[in-house]
Structure formats: structure tokens, C-alpha cells
């Protein structure tokens, strides 16, 4: 298999796919064994937990208490759930998808103006994951934009800034309401957790992923198995499925209901809860017919917060499982290395 140092990535996977010149996957992208037995369990699809956010925010005390417990179980047993009745207008969600498509439809020269040189650049466009260290290429273009505590946006296409501003504000509200419910499910004080993680200055990023049709989708991957660096991630997609989540030893192909968000817990959640709520492994698979686009909203502590297991969840029976780390340092470490499972989190485990 070719390695990254011998392979020059195209300007974008979209450009490669749109060219119509491919009848097979370039060797650099062939990272799967097409003859391997399937590790996806279709019987698990119907078991994915569903959280009704309106009950958390507006329900009577008894129903709300039940939903908090349901949220806790979803975090503890799955690290993943579907959120319905979240309050984000469908017009806002659709406008964001349209704006994102408009960006990817720009000329390559215009998009290349945002080709980031550093993982902390506030606006960064690229392909694969980290072409400087990846041994293989992933069938994915991406656009990452920091939207909080400072808001950033490209100037093109027209209307992108307005769509992103509305979407970022709405998803941040959803994320904070979910975090409030998670703290309550662990009997942690919301005010204390807000201060400990400096959530008023939370680091929020919108990551737009584009997975164009692939001539041999059984050989390539959109993204490999990985966990997110965040507290939690909210995912919205364009109706084309491709997200798979690991549950136990099996993978689950996720088919979300209309007007819902997919939410998973990240590495910072696993650290701060001392392993009670684990970050979940997930991956992106591709297809040969349709373009999949997803918008992942990452909600995390402030960059300068030292994230460590909260004292209330540490005991002689359950000692601290992770060393504390400044979130900025964790983020930079994960983003500049190969993306594979929980390799970044493993560095912090207390042996």
C-alpha cells in the first residue's frame, strides 16, 4: 500500500469524483478489505436511544426526571443517541446545508484560500484528515470553522455567514441543554460544572464533511474509527446515511428520523466523568451513488481549561482514570496525529 509521502493528494475529493475519470479507487485510498466479514449488526438499529429535548426543557418535573435518567442511560450504555423536538427550526438546518453545499461548489482556487496551515486556524479547508501523517487517504473533503467564543466565517458564498451564525447559535443552545441534563444525571451541580469547564467561553466548531460518490466504496473509507475530542458532538446530515457507531463489539448503521440530531459523547466527557460516560467510536462509510454531507457541531470546554476527572466522581473504589490536560493541548495533539480510535485519549490513561 502506498504511503502519504509518495502520494500527492488531489485538490479535493469532489474534484476527483466529479472528473468522471475514475473507474477504480487510487491505491492510496484502498484501506479496507472487501472480503472481510461484515461487522455491522442490523438488529441494533432499533435500539438506539432517543431523547426528547422538549421534555428536558419544558416537561413537568416527573417527566423531566425520567428523561434525565434516560439521557444518563444513553450516555452510559451507548455514548450516542438521537435528539428530537430540539427546537432548531428546519429552515435554519436546511439553510446551513445549502450554504455548505454552496461553499463546496466554489472554484478550487476560492476554497484553497482557506487551506489551513495549523490545526488551530479558525477557518480551515482540506481533504482526507491529516495528509502530512496519514498512511492512507480518506474519501472526504472538510471545512472547519470556529464559531465560539469568537465567530468566524468565510466571505463566500453569499449568505454563508448569516446561515452559519443562526445555525451555530441554535446548536449551541441544544448542546448546553444536553450538558445540563448530563450533569444532572450524574448528580453534579450545573453551576459548578459550567465554571469548572468555563462553558460560557466554550470552544465550538462547525465541521462540514463532504463524501462524494466513490467508484469502489467497499475499498475506501470516509473516516476511520475514531472518537471526538469534544464534550459532545451534534450531527446533521443531508439525508444520505453513512454514519456507523460502535456498540459493544459490533457496529450499528445509523438511519436517523427526519428533523433530528445525532449526538455522541467525546473524549473530554470521558475524562471529566472519570470514565462513567465514555466517548464513542464512530466511522464514516461511503457509497457509489450519492454525495453525503454532514455538519458536525463540536461543543467543548474553553481552550485554556484544564480538564480532569471531577472530584465528585473520584473515590477509593474508583480512582482517577485520567491525567488532567489543558484542552488546547489535547486538541492540537489529536489533530496533528493519525486519526485512529482513542489513540489520543490513551496517552492520558492512568496505568
From TrEMBL:
Gene Ontology annotations for the cellular component aspect, listed alphabetically: cytoplasm; nucleus
Fe2OG dioxygenase domain ranges (all copies): 202-301
Record carries keyword NAD: no
Major localization listed first in the record, in broad terms: cytoplasm
Protein purpose: Involved in the regulation of shoot development and salicylic acid (SA) homeostasis.
Recorded family membership: Belongs to the iron/ascorbate-dependent oxidoreductase family.
PANTHER family: OXOGLUTARATE/IRON-DEPENDENT DIOXYGENASE
Full protein name: Fe2OG dioxygenase domain-containing protein
Organism: Musa acuminata subsp. malaccensis
Amino acid at each position: 500500500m502506498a504511503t502519504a509521502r509518495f502520494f500527492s493528494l488531489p485538490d479535493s475529493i469532489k474534484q476527483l469524483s466529479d472528473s468522471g475519470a475514475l473507474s477504480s479507487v487510487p491505491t492510496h485510498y484502498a484501506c479496507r478489505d472487501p472480503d472481510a466479514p461484515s461487522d455491522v449488526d442490523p438488529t441494533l438499529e432499533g435500539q438506539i436511544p432517543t431523547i426528547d429535548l422538549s421534555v428536558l426543557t419544558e416537561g413537568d418535573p416527573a417527566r423531566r426526571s425520567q428523561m434525565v435518567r434516560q439521557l444518563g442511560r444513553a450516555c452510559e450504555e451507548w455514548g450516542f443517541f438521537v435528539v428530537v423536538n430540539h427546537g432548531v427550526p428546519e429552515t435554519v438546518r436546511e439553510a446551513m446545508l445549502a450554504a455548505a453545499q454552496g461553499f463546496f461548489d466554489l472554484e478550487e482556487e476560492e476554497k484553497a484560500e482557506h487551506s489551513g496551515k495549523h490545526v488551530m486556524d479558525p477557518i480551515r479547508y482540506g481533504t482526507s484528515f491529516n495528509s502530512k501523517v496519514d498512511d492512507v487517504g480518506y474519501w472526504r473533503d472538510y471545512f472547519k470553522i470556529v464559531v465560539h467564543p469568537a465567530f468566524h466565517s468565510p466571505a463566500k458564498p453569499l449568505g454563508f455567514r448569516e446561515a452559519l451564525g443562526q445555525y451555530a447559535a441554535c446548536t449551541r443552545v441544544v448542546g448546553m441543554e444536553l450538558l445540563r441534563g448530563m450533569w444532572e444525571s450524574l448528580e453534579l451541580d450545573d453551576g459548578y460544572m459550567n465554571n469548572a469547564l468555563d462553558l460560557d467561553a466554550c470552544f465550538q466548531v462547525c465541521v462540514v464533511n463532504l463524501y462524494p460518490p466513490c467508484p469502489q466504496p467497499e475499498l475506501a473509507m470516509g473516516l476511520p474509527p475514531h472518537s471526538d475530542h469534544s464534550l459532545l458532538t451534534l450531527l446533521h446530515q443531508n439525508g444520505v446515511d453513512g454514519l456507523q457507531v460502535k456498540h459493544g463489539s459490533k457496529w450499528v448503521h445509523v438511519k436517523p428520523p427526519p428533523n433530528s440530531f445525532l449526538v455522541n459523547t467525546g473524549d473530554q466527557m470521558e475524562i471529566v466523568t472519570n470514565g462513567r460516560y465514555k466517548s464513542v467510536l464512530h466511522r464514516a462509510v461511503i457509497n457509489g451513488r450519492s454525495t453525503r454531507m454532514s455538519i458536525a457541531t463540536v461543543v467543548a470546554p474553553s481552550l485554556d481549561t484544564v480538564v480532569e476527572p471531577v472530584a465528585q466522581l473520584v473515590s477509593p473504589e474508583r480512582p482517577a482514570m485520567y491525567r488532567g490536560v489543558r484542552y488546547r493541548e489535547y486538541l492540537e495533539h489529536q489533530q496533528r496525529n493519525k486519526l485512529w480510535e482513542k489513540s489520543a485519549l490513551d496517552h492520558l490513561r492512568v496505568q
